[in-house]
Amino acid sequence: xxxxxxxxxxxxxxxxxxxxxxxxxxxxxxxxxxxxxxxxxxxxxxxxxxxxxxxxxxxxxxxxxxxxxxxxxxxxxxxxxxxxxxxxxxxxxxxxxxxxxxxxxxxxxxxxxxxxxxxxxxxxxxxxxxxxxxxxxxxxxxxxxxxxxxxxxxxxxxxxxxxxxxxxxxxxxxxxxxxxxxxxxxxxxxxxxxxxxxxxxxxxxxxxxxxxxxxxxxxxxxxxxxxxxxxxxxxxxxxxxxxxxxxxxxxxxxxxxxxxxxxxxxxxxxxxxxxxxxxxxxxxxxxxxxxxxxxxxxxxxxxxxxxxxxxxxxxxxxxxxxxxxxxxxxxxxxxxxxxxxxxxxxxxxxxxxxxxxxxxxxxxxxxxxxxxxxxxxxxxxxxxxxxxxxxxxxxxxxxxxxxxxxxxxxxxxxxxxxxxxxxxxxxxxxxxxxxxxxxxxxxxxxxxxxxxxxxxxxxxxxxxxxxxxxxxxxxxxxxxxxxxxxxxxxxxxxxxxxxxxxxxxxxxxxxxxxxxxxxxxxxxxxxxxxxxxxxxxxxxxxxxxxxxxxxxxxxxxxxxxxxxxxxxxxxxxxxxxxxxxxxxxxxxxxxxx
Length: 593
Known about the structure:
Blueprint: E1 7-12, E2 17-22, H1 24-30, H2 33-44, E3 58-61, E4 75-80, E5 87-92, H3 96-102, E6 107-111, E7 118-122, E8 128-131, H4 140-149, E9 156-159, H5 162-165, E10 173-175, E11 179-181, H6 186-192, E12 195-200, H7 212-227, H8 229-236, H9 243-249, H10 270-276, E13 278-282, E14 292-295, H11 303-311, H12 314-317, E15 319-321, H13 323-329, H14 338-351, H15 355-370, H16 376-379, H17 389-400, H18 405-410, H19 414-421, E16 429-430, E17 433-434, H20 442-450, H21 461-471, H22 475-495, H23 507-516, H24 523-543, H25 569-592
Parallel strand pairs: 1-6, 7-12
Antiparallel strand pairs: 1-2, 3-4, 3-6, 4-5, 7-8, 9-10, 9-12, 10-11, 13-14, 14-15, 16-17
Helix pairs in contact: 1-2, 2-22, 2-24, 7-23, 13-15, 14-17, 15-19, 20-21, 20-22, 22-24, 22-25, 24-25
C-alpha cells in the first residue's frame, strides 16, 4: 500500500544503474511536485553545464494528494532547457503522476547518457534501463503500439519523436498519447541521452483515506468543480472557447503578431472545431472535466480529407487540440480551416515538437521570406506563404529532420534564427521562449518576461490584464499581482493540481486538503513556501546566466494596438524595475528567516 512521499529514484544511463534513496526531509519541507523538483534541480545540475551533457539531469516529480482529491493530475519535469539555456519546467497530465505514486516514488532523477537507444523502466522493486534500439526513428504513437504488443504492463509512457532524437531545441515529449511535456525542450534532452522512452509500471494500490474529513472535503471540491462556470467551459469546448472572446476583445494575435484580431476567427473558433473535427473528449485519472478534446480531419472540408479519414485508423488519427496550438498554427499563420490546423498539430505530435514554438518559427520564417531576409537557397526551394498548409507541413518535417543548415538553425528557435538571418524586430519571443496567444496587455507581456519559465502559465498575466481593465490597476499593482500569483501557483504545482482548477483550490481549500492527510500548513506558511520555490527557480536561472536587465521585448509587440492601445516601453521598464525590487526584498526576508 502506497504511503507518504519520501522515495527518490536515481538513474544513471551511462552505467545503466538505478538506486533508491529515502528523502523524507525533502518532501516534509517542499511537499512534492515543483517544490521538490526545484530543490533536486539545484542539487543535481552542475553549474553552467551544457543541456545536452550526460551530467544534465531530468527531474520528474509527483504530489501527495494524487488519487485522493480531484484534479490532482499533473506531473512536473525540470531540466536545463536547451532553448533558453536556463530553467526548463513543464507539466503533463495523463496517467504519469498516478503511475509514479503507485510505483512508490515521489521523484525520479535521471542523469548520464547511453551509447545506444534505451528505455527507462520505472517499477516498484526492479527499475532498470533496457535497450530500445528497435524503437529509434519511430513516432511516439508507433512506440506506444510496439510496447503494448510486447505485453508489458505500462501505466504511463513518455516518449520522444524525430525532433527529440535530432535535438531540436523545442522538441517535446508525448505522455500517454494525449498529454505532453510540451515546452522548453525536454524531448531534446532525452534525445541527447539516447533515452527514447520512460515506462512507469507502478503496481501498488494507492492508499485512499476514507476518513470523514477527507470524504467531506472531497465532496465539497467535487461540488465546486461541477458548478463552476469556468470548469464547464473546459468541458464543453475546451480552451478553444477563448478564440472568439479574445478576437472580440482585440487580443487575438494573427499574422506573426502583426495584428490583434483575425477576420476568420469564427472558422477556427472552438464552436466550429466542435462542429467540424471533434470526435471525442477524454479526461485524466482523478478528473471529471474531460477537457482533452480530440479531433480528426473531416470529410466535410475537402475530398483529400475524406480519403485520409477513410484509410487511416480512427484511433491513430485522433489529435488533441486546444487554444494555444489553434493560435500558433492557425491564426498566427493565417490558416483558417480547422481540418488543416489539425493536420499541422498532428504533424507536430508525430514528430515531437512544441506546437507553440513551431508556429512562432514558421511565422517568422514566412515574414523573413517575404522581406528578403532568406531565399529559396536556404529553404531548399520551399516558398513560405501565409495560410499555405502543404508548405508548412514540409517545413516542420525539414526542421524535425534538420535537412540543411537553415532548418538546423530554425530548430534552435526563433531567437537564433533572427540572430543568424536578421528580422529580430519581428521574432516574437520573450526570454527565448515563444509568446502564447494573447495580446491582452502589460500583465501578459511583463508576466512572460519575469515568469520563471517565460510562460503564460507562470503567473496568468493575461488573466491579470482582464482584472486590471476592470479595476484600473496601476502598473506596479499589476506587478504585485504577478508575483503573488506565481508564488501561489508554485504551491499548487507542488501539489500537482491541474492549472484549470486553480480557482477551485483557493488557499482555504488547500489548507483543508493538506490537513486532512496530515500535512499541517497555514496559509502564510504556504505562501512562504511559494516564495521559496520562486527563489529556488530564480537562483537556478541566475546561476545559469539569466539576467533580467539584459532581456528585451520584441519591437513587434510595441507596434500593434491591443485592448488598451499600444504598449509603452517606459511603462514596461518601470514594471520590470519594480519587480526586481520586490523580488530582492523577498530574498532578503527569506535569507533572514
